[in-house]
Amino acid sequence: MAAMAALRALRWRLPRTPGPGPARRLSTAEFPSPEEKPQFPGASADFADRLEFIQPNVISGIPVYRVMDRQGHIVSPAEDPQLPKELVLKLYKTMTLLNTMDRILYESQRQGRISFYMTNYGEEGTHVGSAAALDDTDLVFGQYREAGVLMYRGYPLDLFMAQCYGNTSDPGKGRQMPVHYGCRDRHFVTISSPLATQIPQAVGAAYAIKRADANRAVICYFGEGAASEGDAHAGFNFAATLECPIVFFCRNNGYAISTPTSEQYRGDGIAARGPGYGLMSIRVDGNDVFAVYNATKEARRRAVAENQPFLIEAMTYRIGHHSTSDDSSAYRSVDEVNYWDKQDHPISRLRHYMLNRGWWDEEQEKGWRKSSRKMVMEAFEEAERKPKPNPQLLFSDVYREMPPHLRRQRAALERHLQHYGEHYPLEHFEK
Amino acid sequence: MAAAGLALRGALASGAAVAVRRRGGLWSCLSPLPAAPRRSAAHFAFQPDPAPSAYGQTQKMNLFQSITSALDNALAKDPTAVIFGEDVAFGGVFRCTVGLRDKYGKDRVFNTPLCEQGIVGFGIGVAVAGATAIAEIQFADYIFPAFDQIVNEAAKYRYRSGDLFNCGNLTIRAPWGCVGHGALYHSQSPEAFFAHCPGIKIVIPRSPLQAKGLLLSCIEDKNPCIFFEPKILYRAAVEQVPVEPYNIPLSQAEVLQTGSDVTLVAWGTQVHVIKEVAAMAQEKLGVSCEVIDLRTILPWDTETVCKVLLNGSTAFCCVGHSSQFRIISKLAEGTLCPLIQVTDEYVE
């Protein structure tokens, strides 16, 4: 039977020429030298007559594409995206506003005002450079450290704060930990804590969008740690085989909580996996906002035009702790962190560029820092004053319609709170 | 797992027919078996329902054909609907998607790589983008790599986003239960693992007629659904099934027979077993049995089941998994009704 199957496969591969029956078709005359070329359905290549294993690094390291050097000078004029001043200022202001929001929310967690926080320090260039290169209606599946993408799309400070406080203005109704943002109008799918689950989902969404012929793309963010999950493998493989218009954007920031990249993978990063899946792939300097912009812009354009997935590995560095529950001094040196903070920061690199062009000066910097801090503090204070959502919201949205058993539970909670409400901090919750 | 799984998957679907065809050559040297070989050890008598008159023309269909008919109706009605999974393009190893690719195009009925977590994750994404996703997991035994996507993602999508996003257009189909020759990894009934997970619906039909109406309800329902298909019924169960689409409501149990002494509850294949038991109990013991097909395992129809309990059955028997039994036993505490569970506590 196996032989018959092989013959069937051979027949399928042969050009269909009119002629006598099947036996005739298999003669060597019409199938010249089948021995000279492997006919396995799973690969197309030549035979090798020498025993040789393939080296894991076929090429000596995938290069890091950049546009600007660390002092903000354009390295190759041909690669300069030549973004207008207004857009560059928008990039810069988003990156710095994000940085300011991070500082205030991080501090507020330290003071016990919010339960948890994750800063974006050092990765602002990856967020904003990619967001600027997308269409505003492209669907975003994030991991959890992509607040800058949402901020670039104009998500207001008070909604960031509302989510972190889980107050009545939180569109997520206070159900998730801080930084799990979502916004339907801005096409930013709500973050979930399990890592990499968003990757195959983003691929499915890209497939549906392709069928709808909507001239939209999907972008899916994840870290180099999440790329070790099975879901990452699933997503890459599905996207390639099902020809989906998606940009996989890996933020390789050096650490998955405490685990360094040297203990996360042994190959040449995440970009090196692309060819194995049949993905177009590139590695970029994630601290160079223009490099990120160029790579994302071209990947996005081609993904939609050609219905094929692209993989971008943006090399960057997580300057902050993983989260407020982490102290990174336990596993990395202050000197290492300082290097990235002082010598190779995406914000200072773009500022150098703007200063070089005469688009920005120290006075503007001071003024913007002051006004952005004021905006964040105002939003923060307002969020803090708002109550938590009504406890009855515990039971909605489990199903689209509330089934009888949840209605019973909700009624039971209501009765319970009527009798014993004095034992609960109900004054903090919406009535 | 993949290699062994694949070999078995192929063998299960078409093994018997192929084996017969292969018998020539050396086989002819063997002496014939003393009796006809028994391929399957499972026993039950499928009891068809009468042909319905409410939904127009009917046609004789077995369960896999009624599934195909439902999928055909779904694809015809909803241009965004897509069907995907392992081997579905050529018709599926159980033949549930036969002809659909040719009829609706290869972008609507397509194979995926062999990866259950990918299939469910992909399906969630299709649904989040607003299209209708009908995913097939080739065997319920292989649904576990997708457990995280089902339990942490699909089930919680609407809740965690405050209803900004949802994947209610997702339906996951999977062949379920034993046939008799599937042994450890082609026989499982894993619904209990999902039965404690708020946010999803779980449905198991007992017949072709039920399967079509319930599957169409799952596909149209705005919550993610898992639809387990008793694979022993794929060919063994034949009924007159309407050609046109129709719905059987979810979360509604069906009282198949009223009785005054004992209440029997089951779902899927076991419904036919308890119907037979009810007849035997009446005939041999003079015991009158109420027979209920639960149909939807989550969220299940507590009202119908409780009404029966309160009406004063003197005993209650749940044929199925301990999860439901535990819940039912809790409900029955106040009724002084003795409870029997026909499955081992630890055999799910």
TrEMBL record, chain A:
Gene3D superfamilies, per the entry: 3.40.50.970
InterPro entries, A to Z: Alpha-ketoacid_DH_E1_comp, DH_E1, THDP-binding
Localization (cell): Mitochondrion matrix
Residue span, Dehydrogenase E1 component domain: 92-391
One Gene Ontology MF term: branched-chain 2-oxo acid dehydrogenase activity
This protein's name: 2-oxoisovalerate dehydrogenase subunit alpha
Subunit structure comment from the entry: Heterotetramer of 2 alpha/BCKDHA and 2 beta chains/BCKDHB that forms the branched-chain alpha-keto acid decarboxylase (E1) component of the BCKD complex. The branched-chain alpha-ketoacid dehydrogenase is a large complex composed of three major building blocks E1, E2 and E3. It is organized around E2, a 24-meric cubic core composed of DBT, to which are associated 6 to 12 copies of E1, and approximately 6 copies of the dehydrogenase E3, a DLD dimer. Interacts with PPM1K.
Superkingdom of source: Eukaryota
EC number: 1.2.4.4
Cofactor: thiamine diphosphate
Annotated function: Together with BCKDHB forms the heterotetrameric E1 subunit of the mitochondrial branched-chain alpha-ketoacid dehydrogenase (BCKD) complex. The BCKD complex catalyzes the multi-step oxidative decarboxylation of alpha-ketoacids derived from the branched-chain amino-acids valine, leucine and isoleucine producing CO2 and acyl-CoA which is subsequently utilized to produce energy. The E1 subunit catalyzes the first step with the decarboxylation of the alpha-ketoacid forming an enzyme-product intermediate. The branched-chain alpha-keto dehydrogenase complex catalyzes the overall conversion of alpha-keto acids to acyl-CoA and CO(2). It contains multiple copies of three enzymatic components: branched-chain alpha-keto acid decarboxylase (E1), lipoamide acyltransferase (E2) and lipoamide dehydrogenase (E3).
CDD domains in the record: TPP_E1_PDC_ADC_BCADC
UniProtKB/TrEMBL annotation, chain B:
InterPro entries according to UniProt: THDP-binding, Transketo_C/PFOR_II, Transketolase-like_Pyr-bd, Transketolase_C
Keyword match Oxidoreductase: yes
Catalytic activity from the UniProt record: N(6)-[(R)-lipoyl]-L-lysyl-[protein] + 3-methyl-2-oxobutanoate + H(+) = N(6)-[(R)-S(8)-2-methylpropanoyldihydrolipoyl]-L-lysyl-[protein] + CO2
Enzyme class: oxidoreductase
Protein name: 3-methyl-2-oxobutanoate dehydrogenase (2-methylpropanoyl-transferring)
Species for this entry: Grus japonensis
Domain of life: Eukaryota
SUPFAM superfamilies noted in UniProt: Thiamin diphosphate-binding fold (THDP-binding), TK C-terminal domain-like
Essential cofactor(s): thiamine diphosphate
Molecular function terms from GO: branched-chain 2-oxo acid dehydrogenase activity
Protein keywords: Oxidoreductase
Residues in Transketolase-like pyrimidine-binding domain copies: 61-236
EC number assigned by the record: 1.2.4.4
